[in-house]
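Sequence in, structure out. First:
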Amino acid sequence: MRPEIVTFWHGPLDALRLTCLRSQVAAGHRVTVYSFEPIAQLPDGVGNAEAEAILPHAFSEKLRPPQPDGRWRDWTILQFSDFFRMRLMARGAGLWLDADVLLLKPIEIDPARPYFAWERPRQLGNSVLYLPSGDPIVAAFADLMEQDELTPDWLALRHRLTFLLRQLRGRSNRVSDIRVAIYGPAALTALARRAGELRYALPKKSFYAVHAEPKRFFEPQDFSALIGDPEIIGLHVSPKGRGNRPPVAGSLYGWAAERFGPSDTVIASEATQSI
């Protein structure tokens, strides 16, 4: 089955993520971005749906209080999206892809089985995620979301000790403050292990070939092996602040921008980039 692709976004989309969304449409998928405010200038073929109907904005206050002007603080967006994708799984909404996943070919899933891949040698990534609505991982998150304190029963020992020390020192009573990814890849990995589902994980290079090496995406080099490898389905880019920089000629980003970008995309030379 070729699923609908779903994701969540908070704020304006940068050029890199718009390119990635176009790649997902070009692969033949219907794509929906959920948001609390309408997103302007979405690519053709990408729909915009109301996030409040999936997970209320007020849930973010369980993670941490907002700033005085109402804006979310530091890690709130990332952690909120960890819960949002699980709520989408519970609703059978489709396949979650982060907005910075460049898709090189269509994704086919078995709707009765989980779909994810290794991000690191012992950790799954949750940037690409499908779970059946009745999956034990989905149920575990549903139970967690009923709590006010959002304390998972799958926390690793080191995280339990870190949390205890923070409490004793009066620094925080929120598990969400331990680390940014506390509800993300580490949680998915622990729960997949508990449910006996690690066997479904795809190899790392399926989606995470450049994730930890952004130079392979943003800087000029020979990328033919990446786009020619039949086992690479897509690339989770993780731009880390580079999302609105012009793509550099000779880079994988430059290739992607020309292939999936609008007709007026400008590819910068290395000299222009260095100015």
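Second:
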Amino acid sequence: MDPPPSEEERRLAALVRAHDRWRGREVFNLLASENAVSPLARRYLSSDLAGRYTLPLSTEFDGEKIDNSYAGTRYTDRIEALANAAAARVFRAKFATVRPLSGHIAALSALVPLLPPKSKILAISPEEGGYDGYAPGFVPALCDYTVRPLPADGPGHRVRSEAAVDAIESERPNAVVLGQSFFLFPYPLKEIAEAAHAIDALVFYDASHVLGLIAGGQFQDPLREGADVVFGSTHKSFPGPQGGLLVTDREDLFLQIDPALVWRVFDNAHWHRIAGLAQTLLELERCGTEYATTVVDDARALARALDALGVPLVAAAEGYTASHQIHLDRSALKERHGLGAGALARRLERQRLLIDLVGRIGTAEVARLGLTPADMPRLADLLVRAGLRRERVGAEVLAWRKSYPSLRFA
């Protein structure tokens, strides 16, 4: 007979239950970097696959020809093949891999095999909304790359075609890496790709934040617009488990990327995650267009409603956003209300409304719950009352949240 659970085990179980209740049923999550995983994808995450390996290869060992280092992989390998095929269909790509463990690892999976040390890359700086991982002290330092800034301007951190082309022609990089954490508007990708390809530079598109929108045919279509490789996280606007994927139409690049994944960027993939990701890809095949359209429509409607209530936002003159993100005007927020973005986020959290502490508001998860543009004025009112007026609206938020017991688009 097994011994009874320890006190620490009981505490752990209580903490997980509390988290599931709090985050899964009692708050509206407006974090731009998160999403809700469907019940079926979550079930696969807790399957026996969670502890398994597979390593297909073609080699000899002790004089025997083997095609996998492990026995018992007949279903694991088929699950991966199904997921890769679904990713290729969803993104209309010729080649896909779902093995990368995260969006950041997906970036390394493309950069490491294709760009030798001493290469020069252009990337949007963090000061202009770019992803910190491409800043000089991080991926470039790890890979011995030189990084130069790709210009982005204005409060919406927008990349303009003329400035981007000028930078490519003057810097003559080996690659342009497009990717932002503060990501409101599409890139002038055709112009960037034409300029890059004219000097034999590659174009990498880090779609981590907008991957779900691209899957649903919104925002932009990177592979058709000139990107050589597209990769990203699968848990932001893409409503899957934490992880990454990579797609391309170029066989020559894929044949360099795919064999280099194992033992260079990571060892074994996480097969329960891949099963959950496959389920999410199949969900998006069914309803990805409606989902992505709702996400973007919700973001624009929420921005309009917040602006009307006096919440300062960036890029109002450009329609606020074309993605799942809305950005607070942090300087105006301080000037008008004496409030930083972090302090605002803490006030909202106490009333069951979650945004991040750097000034971004996202609509991907509330769209997955079933909120539509018609609901955004009510949501904006709650955000203003809780955040700016310091009203106690937690009970009202909880009652409304409980009216959405299940997910749409799942």
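Remark: The mean pLDDT is 97.
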